[in-house]
Each structure stands twice: as structure tokens, then as C-alpha cells.
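Run log // design_07
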């Protein structure tokens, strides 16, 4: 590979590390700054940070690969994600920003769940922290798989070496600069992803003699778009249900907690949704053009999830190739850093401080948070050493786990004043266990699991929601103080509008 490609990647790595150093000097004196950036993040950074941390390596590798293999039915996933992200901005973002302040300045999602019910260290805090650490370790490993595949495919390096390079850089700036570093690097990475997902499918499209030539070559492998509904009602619902996951993704909704004001959320929504629609169309287009390109030019492609990498190498000048490969790293690192920070925050605030040392000083707590980043990254790296795992499969399992365990809980805790602490625990446990059962229990013929029939987030979300309502109905009503805080939050939301 040309040296200019390596130079472009080196510049990208240096920029990320420089941002981490800048954040280290400006926002890590106290735990609030390290975890939430002092709740002073601009709407522009919030929007691109939420988008970049959401989309991860699957945007440039998993989704194009799915389009390559599954065809136009992948569009249903994209539609579900866009609708879910929009609903998240409208329903969750403003209420969570106000409520986490009203609930005794909760800094993490488990902290909010506990203080929402008037408890400092309720059982829901420990349980939700455990779920975050478990599923984020799995989720982080999916990003590292993408990083390893990138270095293996693009540079001919050993897959394990690629893992270590990826995790080393992302851990360095996350460990140093905390939330501000993660948000600022996400902003830069979001810009890079946007340009790359417009540029790559467009340049690849120019290799064809118009739209008819492209579609004719694509139809040799995948069905016409007119047949995208032929996959069946259950499969369509399962694809659209990806949107349900947004309500329970801690690494995304924590951005809403950190934005500088509730009034800024509308600006963030416009920017974030515009970014998402363009990039997700670009990812789908990359997969579609890839199908046609492979057929027309007889390109040998071992792994469909690497089509973006292949286009970057064969269609562009080496310097641009380096920029495009940096886009994949940007997608991977933005999500990994967010997940590492949220996991570390739960280990620090919701486990160590809550259980072992309530009076610890902020500087020591920040250092423990940094140790947490390193620990979670180490475990995720070990899990990612199996390169055969599909990126999309890893992401879909973790996405469903969070969506089912936390989605109904987040929504009902923000909208229903009669929800109680016991119902919150019931919702988390029932949702997570349903997802795990759906994924791993071989209850169907030939040892197949229920996830082969329906995406596990659907039963998990339903079971969790029903559990919360039933336990709240038959249990004790929340205290007057808790209900008063709920009503105060609604009043402040009305004032903000």
C-alpha cells in the first residue's frame, strides 16, 4: 500500500490523541466533567456524537454487507432505525435532560433509575449497572472485530494486531479526556463518516453506464426492490423493530443528559436526523453498488462486510484511500469510546462509589474511572479474538439486550408517575432474560433458536413493558416526594417550551 495512505491514517490517529489531550486538560478535574462534560455540550457536538456513537463499524461494514447478502429487505432495518432515532429525540431527549437534573443531578443512567424512585443506592442501580457492563462488553467486541477486519483486509496485517492497534488508540484518548474527548472525537469522526458515505457510493456508481446498467447487474444477485416485501410480515416487523432499541441505548441517550440546555435539543435533532438519513442511505447504496460491481467486473470478494474497504482501495488515490479507511476507524472508535466510557462510569459511580467508598474524592474517582475503561477494553478484546463472528450479529444481540432491558423502563419512568422501584427491577430482569433466552435456547427443531424466527427485541420489549405495568399496578405507589419530582419535571418541560 502507498505510503500516503499510511500518512493519512497517522494524521487521523494524531488528531484523535490530540483531542484526548485537550480534553484531559479541560474537563477531567471532577467526576461530572469526566462522565458528562459538565452538562455543557453544544447541540452540534451532541448531534454528531450521538450519531457517530450509534452507527459504529456496522454502518460502513455491517450494513453494506447485509445489503450485499440480503438485498433490498435490509431497507426495512434502515427505516426502523430512522423512525426510532426520531422518536428518541422527541420523546426521551428533553425529558431525560430535565429529569436527570431534578433527580438529584443523576450522572449515569443507573443513577437516574435509582434516584427516580427516591433512592440513593436502590437495587435497580446495581442491576442496571450489571446489564450495562455485560452487554457493552459484548457490544464493544463487535467494534473491535470491525477494526481487526479493517487492518487485515486493507493492510494485510494479522487480525489480532489490528485489534490491538484499534483498542490502543481508542483507549488512550478515552482514558485521558473522558466524555469531552469522546464527544469531540465523535464530532470529527461523524464529519468523516458523512463525507465518506457520500463519496464512495457516488464514485462507484460512475463505473456504470447509468442507473439501468447498475440495476441490471445488481439483479443478477439480489431481487428487484419491488420484491422487498416478500420476506414476510414477521421478518419486516423484526427489521423495523430495530428502532425500538434506541430508547434503551445508554451510550446514545447519555448525550441527551449532557447537552447544555433542553432548548438546544431541537437544534440537535435537526442536525442529527439529517446526518443519519444521508449516511444510512450512503451505506445501503454502497452495498447495492457493490453487488453490481462484483458481478460486472468479476471482482473476488471473500467477505461482503469488506466491500467499503475494497472500494476505497481500488477506486481512489492512495491519499484518499487513507481518508476513507480512517472513516471506518472513525465509525468503530466513536462507538467503542462511548461504550467504554459508559461502562466505566457504571463501574465507578454505580458500583465502586455506591458500594465501597461513598466519600471518595473526585480526582481519585476519575482515576478509578480510567482503570474501568482499561478493564472493559481488555475483556472485550479477548472476546473479539474470534474473527469469524459477524459484526451485524454481535451488534443486533447487544442492541436487543439494551432495548429490551432499558427501553420500556426509560419511557415509562419519564411518562408514568405511578411507576415504582420494584417494577423497574422487574422490567430490566424480564427484558434481559427474554432476550438471552430468545438468542441462545435451542427450542426449535434442529436446535434452532427463536431468534431465527423473530428478532429478540420484540418479545423482550413486550415482556419488559408488561412486567413494569403489572408490578406497578399491584405494588406500592411511589412516595409523595417522588411523585412531586415527577410533576416538577413536567412543569419545567412546559416552561422550556
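design_07 sequence
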Amino acid at each position: 500500500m502507498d505510503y500516503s495512505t499510511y500518512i493519512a491514517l497517522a494524521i487521523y490517529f494524531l488528531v484523535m490523541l490530540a483531542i484526548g489531550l485537550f480534553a484531559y486538560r479541560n474537563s477531567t478535574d471532577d467526576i461530572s466533567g469526566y462522565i458528562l462534560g459538565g452538562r455543557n455540550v453544544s447541540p452540534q457536538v451532541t448531534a454528531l456524537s450521538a450519531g457517530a456513537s450509534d452507527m459504529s463499524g456496522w454502518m460502513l461494514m455491517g450494513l453494506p454487507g447485509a445489503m450485499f447478502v440480503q438485498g433490498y429487505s435490509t431497507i426495512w432495518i434502515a427505516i426502523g432505525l430512522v423512525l426510532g432515532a426520531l422518536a428518541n429525540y422527541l420523546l426521551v431527549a428533553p425529558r431525560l435532560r430535565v429529569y436527570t437534573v431534578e433527580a438529584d443531578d443523576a450522572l449515569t443512567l443507573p443513577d437516574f433509575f435509582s434516584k427516580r424512585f427516591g433512592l440513593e443506592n436502590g437495587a435497580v442501580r446495581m442491576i442496571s449497572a450489571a446489564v450495562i457492563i455485560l452487554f457493552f462488553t459484548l457490544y464493544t467486541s463487535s467494534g473491535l472485530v470491525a477494526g481487526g477486519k479493517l487492518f487485515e483486509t486493507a493492510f494485510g496485517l494479522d487480525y489480532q494486531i489490528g485489534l490491538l492497534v484499534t483498542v490502543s488508540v481508542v483507549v488512550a484518548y478515552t482514558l485521558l479526556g473522558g466524555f469531552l474527548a469522546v464527544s469531540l472525537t465523535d464530532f470529527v469522526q461523524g464529519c468523516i463518516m458523512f463525507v465518506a458515505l457520500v463519496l464512495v457510493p457516488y464514485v462507484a456508481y460512475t463505473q456504470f453506464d447509468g442507473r439501468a446498467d447498475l440495476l441490471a447487474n445488481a439483479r443478477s444477485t439480489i431481487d428487484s426492490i419491488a420484491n422487498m416485501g416478500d420476506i414476510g410480515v414477521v421478518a419486516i416487523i423484526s427489521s423495523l423493530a430495530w428502532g425500538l432499541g434506541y430508547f434503551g441505548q445508554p451510550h446514545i441517550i447519555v448525550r441527551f443528559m449532557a447537552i447544555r440546555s433542553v432548548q438546544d435539543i431541537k437544534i440537535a435533532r435537526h442536525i442529527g436526523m439529517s446526518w443519519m438519513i444521508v449516511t444510512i442511505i450512503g451505506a445501503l447504496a454502497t452495498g447495492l453498488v457493490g453487488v453490481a460491481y462484483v458481478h460486472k467486473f468479476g471482482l473476488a470478494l471473500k467477505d461482503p462486510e469488506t466491500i467499503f474497504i475494497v472500494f476505497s482501495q481500488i477506486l481512489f488515490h492512495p491519499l484518499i484511500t487513507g481518508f476513507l479507511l480512517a472513516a471506518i476507524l472513525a465509525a468503530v472508535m466513536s462507538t467503542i469510546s462511548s461504550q467504554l466510557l459508559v461502562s466505566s462510569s457504571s463501574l465507578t459511580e454505580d458500583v465502586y462509589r455506591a458500594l465501597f467508598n461513598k466519600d471518595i474524592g473526585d480526582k481519585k474517582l476519575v482515576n478509578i474511572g480510567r482503570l474501568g475503561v482499561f478493564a472493559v477494553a481488555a475483556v472485550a478484546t479477548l472476546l473479539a479474538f474470534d474473527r469469524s463472528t459477524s459484526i451485524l450479529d454481535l451488534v443486533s444481540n447487544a442492541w436487543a439486550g439494551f432495548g429490551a432491558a432499558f427501553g420500556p423502563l426509560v419511557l415509562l419512568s419519564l411518562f408514568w408517575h405511578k411507576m415504582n422501584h420494584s417494577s423497574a427491577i422487574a422490567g430490566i430482569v424480564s427484558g434481559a432474560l427474554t432476550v438471552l433466552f430468545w438468542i441462545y435456547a435451542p427450542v426449535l427443531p434442529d436446535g434452532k433458536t427463536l431468534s431465527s424466527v423473530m428478532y429478540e427485541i420484540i418479545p423482550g420489549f413486550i415482556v419488559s413493558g408488561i412486567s413494569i405495568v403489572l408490578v406497578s399496578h399491584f405494588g406500592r405507589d411511589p412516595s409523595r416526594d417522588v411523585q412531586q419530582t415527577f410533576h416538577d419535571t413536567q412543569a419545567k418541560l412546559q416552561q422550556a417550551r
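The mean pLDDT is 85.
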